[in-house]
Structures are given as C-alpha cells and as structure tokens.
Design brief:
This protein has 463 residues and is α/β, with parallel strands linked by helices. Helix content is 46%, strand content 15%.
C-alpha cells in the first residue's frame, strides 16, 4: 500500500485517490522573475519523482504545475529595467524550462499561466463576495478569514493564536489583520474588473487554475514547506468557500535546501542558480544529492555532499556501461524498491536497492537482469543513464588548481600542486593525524578531486 504524509492530518496515511486509478495533482510552480535556484531543483525534482512513481504504480495522473506571471516581484523588476512585465516573464520562464529540462524533470500535463486565467479568478472572487466571504474596499477585495472556521488547520495554527500574533498596520483597510487580498487595485499594470482596474492576489491565482484544469476537488496539492502558510492555507480557505467542497484530499510539502543552516532564498541572497550548479555537476549528481535525503527533511548544501553524489551517480552509470538493456527484470528487487517508495517516498531506501544492483553487476552476478532492473528503477527516480559523467576541460582543471594554490598556500612554482598536496596528506597519515588527513581529502573532494588509497600509494581523479 502506498502511504504518504498528509500535512493536513499531520500523519502518514494510505493513499486512496478520489477516483480509482486516477490522480489529480497540483504543484505550485515558479514565479518567473529570476533564474531558478537549487531550492527550486529540490522542489521540482521531488514532485517529478512523485509523478513518475504514481505512473509506475499504474495510476492515470493529470499533473498541473502553474506559472505565476503576474506578481509584485515581476512588476518591480520590469520597472527597474524599464520594460514590459511580459519581457521579464518570458525571459525567466524560458530560463526555468531550460533548467527543468537540464534536470530531466518531466513536463507536467498542464502548465497554465496566471494571466491566461483571469476570467476564472474574477468569477471566483465575485462568488466569494456574493456569499459574504469577501468584501471590497476602495478597489481592493479581501477574504474574510474568520468566516472560514477551518482556517489554520493546514498549518496547525488556530485562528485565535494567529489573531494574537497579528500586527495591525497603520491605515489598515481590512476588517481583520488576518484577511488577505483576493484582488488588488492597480491602475498602472492592472486589468478591468467589477472592482475597477486591478490584478489578482497570489493565492487566488492557484485556486482558479486548479479549479479550471482539475476540478473543484483534487487528490494531491504539493509544494515547498514555505508555502504551507500563508499560501496554501489561503488557497484552501478561498477554494472551499467558493466551491462548497473539499479542495484537496492530501497536502504534501518538501523541506528546504539550506546553506549554513539557513533556508536558501533570493531574499537572503544565499542562493545558487541551477545553471551555476550544472556547470560543475550533472543532472544525475544533483538528483542523487536531493533523493539521498527524505523529501520532508531539510537538505544542507555543500560541495562535499554534491561531490559524493557525483561519485555515486558515476558508480551507477559505470555499472551498466556497455550492457545492452533489455526488459527482463529481477522481481525481488522491484518488490523491495516498491516497498521502500511506498513508505512515504523513501527514496534513500530505494537508492540502496539501486546501489545493491550495481554492486552485483560489478561482481558479475546475473549482470544482464540486474542491469535491466537498475536501468528501469533508475528511470522511475528520474536518472538519465544515457549521460556520461561531465569531462573536465583543461581550462576547468587549471581553475581548480588555482583554487588549490590559494586553499593550501602552496608556492605556484610547484608544477604538480595536487601531488604536493597528496604528500602533505601522507605526512599527516604517517604521523597518525587522521583529522588532518580527512580534512585534506574532503577539501580536494570539494574541488572535484577524489583520492583513492591503495597499497601502491594514493591516486587521484577528477569526478
């Protein structure tokens, strides 16, 4: 039985779709005002894996992932650059798609744009206003949070607690500090509406796009943990009040990617773009780095972890290199893989099955069937085994060596800096200074240089 953690109930539940063998799945997509970063990679690789696994399980899946192309950040950037908002959104949508393709993330079945769903948004806001769940003040329309008794359930924050912690801004037009915008007055960048020229609030966009393409009630709504409140809480409230029924049966959230224990984000200016990371590591390495950790847990970014993932991905690829893949599989391995993934997408356990198959192939055990099985299960996790490991050019190697000169304070007159560092490490090992030895090994690994200790000495390779 496939079990997943439902944020709404705060527990693991057996997954039972609304319709037998059919799954309607919505994932909050990008706001296209900048390049996607490693945090986005974590999010969309996670839900790509869920999408692939649901199909592996035999479900007929309709996966909808929206594009937010009307937003304050987009308008701010268009103002700064002196161009139309569409120039910004088109540029960064193309960048996002290129990044997703590079990560081997499957295209969703439906990818609606907010600007193409304005009529549905206006209709939903009108319905909420007519039923007393919304009110207009000087061209702005707000949702009455306290009229929705279940508000706060998704994020486990009772309305009373939220009210106690709320701050009322000066000249506030809202009836309650918890009320949120459904429609915003905007005479410069807005659209015609019953309340004057304006544009939709962020939350109503997803509700309208989900309703249009998947219906009033869906099976799974997913996204990053940072969206649980207020975005998903507000989506749930307005959708259930407008439609008069449950919005989503299951809510799933992936953990953050962190740097120095802080969430990777553009606001903190501590993010790495996907394109930046792909200059050093290929898609298989990034996917392995992400899937080694459970999707609900935070992932700490560091070069050592990514270098290790790169080596692991290389090991998987090398294990089936030169073997023509067929369609006869090891049923026991597939069963073990499915049991792992059925435990709330336990990709770490599932990866152990893949590495076990790779080890059997290396030992020459039933190579053909194990290679077939590894390739098949690897594709379920989204690995692209047609890729070879990234070759390091002479210029890239030179850049690495330049970094090592600085890192280890070595005189640049030394021709083979890596060999010199290996000598320093050997001295540490001879002196039983294992901490220093490990530190040197890890520093080299962070620069994509892997050491291998043998009876004949230590060798190195670029990974």
């Amino acid at each position: 039985m496939f079990k997943i953690y439902n944020t709404l109930s705060n527990q693991i539940e057996v997954f039972k779709p609304l319709e037998e063998n059919k799954v309607k799945m919505y994932v909050c997509g990008p706001t296209v005002y900048d390049h996607a970063h490693l945090g986005h990679a974590r999010c969309y690789i996670t839900w790509d894996t869920l999408y692939r696994y649901l199909k592996f399980k035999g479900y007929d899946v309709v996966y909808c992932r929206n594009v937010t192309d009307v937003d304050d950040k987009i308008l701010k950037k268009s103002d700064t650059e002196g161009v139309e908002p569409s120039v910004i959104t088109d540029r960064y949508y193309k960048s996002f798609i290129n990044s997703m393709n590079s990560l081997n993330v499957l295209k969703p079945d439906v990818e609606p744009r907010a600007t193409k769903t304005l009529g549905e948004m206006i209709a939903m806001v009108k319905k909420l206003e007519a039923d007393g769940f919304a009110y207009c003040v000087d061209g702005d329309v707000y949702f009455r949070v306290e009229k929705y008794a279940k508000y706060g359930e998704l994020s486990s924050q009772p309305i009373k607690d939220l009210l106690n912690g709320a701050r009322v801004e000066a000249n506030e037009k809202k009836e309650s500090p918890l009320d949120f915008a459904l429609w915003k007055k905007d005479e410069k960048f807005g659209y015609k509406s019953p309340w004057g020229v304006g544009r939709p609030g962020w939350h109503i966009e997803c509700s309208a796009m989900s309703k249009k393409h998947l219906g009033n009630t869906i099976d799974i709504h997913a996204g990053g943990a940072d969206l649980a409140f207020p975005h998903h809480e507000n989506e749930r409230a307005q959708s259930e009040c407008a439609n008069g029924c449950q919005f989503s049966k299951y809510w799933m959230h992936n953990g953050f990617v962190t740097i120095n224990k802080e969430k990777m984000s553009k606001s903190l200016n501590n993010f790495l773009t996907i394109d930046d990371v792909l200059k050093i590591y290929d898609t298989n390495a990034i996917r392995l780095f992400i899937l080694t950790n459970h999707y609900r847990m935070p992932v700490e970014f560091n070069d050592v972890a990514l270098s290790g993932a790169s080596s692991g991905a290389k090991r998987l690829i090398n294990s089936i290199a030169g073997i023509e893949i067929g369609n006869e599989y090891d049923a026991d391995a597939i069963k073990a893989f499915e049991e792992a993934m059925d435990e709330d997408l336990n990709t770490s356990k599932a990866l152990a099955i893949l590495f076990g198959l790779a080890e059997k192939i290396r030992k020459g055990e039933n190579k053909q069937i194990n290679a077939n099985t590894l390739s098949y299960l690897g594709s379920v996790l989204g690995f692209d085994f047609s890729l070879s490991q990234k070759e390091v050019s002479a210029d890239e190697l030179k850049a690495i060596v330049e970094l090592l000169y600085e890192e280890f304070g070595i005189d640049k007159s030394i021709e083979n800096v890596i060999e010199e560092i290996i000598k320093i490490r050997k001295e540490a090992r001879d002196n039983k200074d294992w901490a220093k030895s490990d530190e040197i090994r890890d520093k080299l690994l962070a620069h994509k240089i892997q050491l291998k200790d043998t009876k004949e000495g230590t060798t190195w390779q670029i990974i």
